[in-house]
Amino acid sequence: MARGSRASVDVEYSPVGEGLGMRDFWLYVWLRRVSVITAHIISVGLVFLTSILSRPGTSLFSWHPVCMSLGFCLCMTEGILLFSAEGSPFCFKSRKWKVRLHWFFQALLLVFGATGFGFMVASKNVSEHSHFTSWHSLLGVTTMVATMLQATCGVFLLFPKLISAQSFPRMRLYHATCGLVAYLLSAVTVMAAMFTDWFQAMVKGVTWYIFFLLPLFPALVVMNQITSAFLPKKKITS
């Protein structure tokens, strides 16, 4: 076949924080901005409400929901949304500055996650209850594993000399994919926690349904941001 007789197809990935489609359309941009701001508010609100319900310090278990909400509802959400071009308080910062802050939030996530996990195990040991017998606990362990996987991918991105230059774009995609899976798992785990006896003893009726739906909104915003940033865009060149 003659050279140049067929158009070549290059697959490119848009940078983190850049969406696809109707970004230039003012209504679309406004809706994205409102969505991101709402996700910020919900993530902070979930931590605040969880702290009120658990009353940290009253028992070993009381620290578990507080630490987990700080890690997965707040730090994980903020660590992703800071790359958003709409509604993020860090939107005017440089890419390098955002990456450093992203790592700070992710490090806090791992610390809070490990601490919350430790309090849960200690509480079960003291009360002599069996470990990992509920869907919430099983989902929680799965979420921790996925979080560690995305952090491992992130280490290779932070120290690119550990991998080849050809592997860097693929590792970046792996990191984003693991991060999305971990975030969605964390949202499902939070929702599963609302079926536990501890939560249902304190929250009932319409309030319970509001709590149940709250984690869904930040999850949708995060999913839209990550998929928009990493879905391949085909660029046709002759």
UniProtKB/TrEMBL annotation:
Keywords: Electron transport, Heme, Iron, Membrane, Metal-binding, Transmembrane, Transmembrane helix, Transport. It holds the Pfam family Cytochrom_B561. It is found in: Membrane. Residues 30-233 form the Cytochrome b561 domain. Its main location: membrane. GO terms for molecular function: metal ion binding; transmembrane ascorbate ferrireductase activity; transmembrane monodehydroascorbate reductase activity. GO terms for cellular component: membrane. It is a multi-pass membrane protein. The chain crosses the membrane at residues 30-54, 60-83, 103-123, 135-159, 171-196, 208-231. Its EC number is 7.2.1.3. The keyword Disulfide bond does not apply. Its cofactor is heme b. This is ascorbate ferrireductase (transmembrane). It comes from Triplophysa rosa. The lineage of its organism: Eukaryota, Metazoa, Chordata, Craniata, Vertebrata.
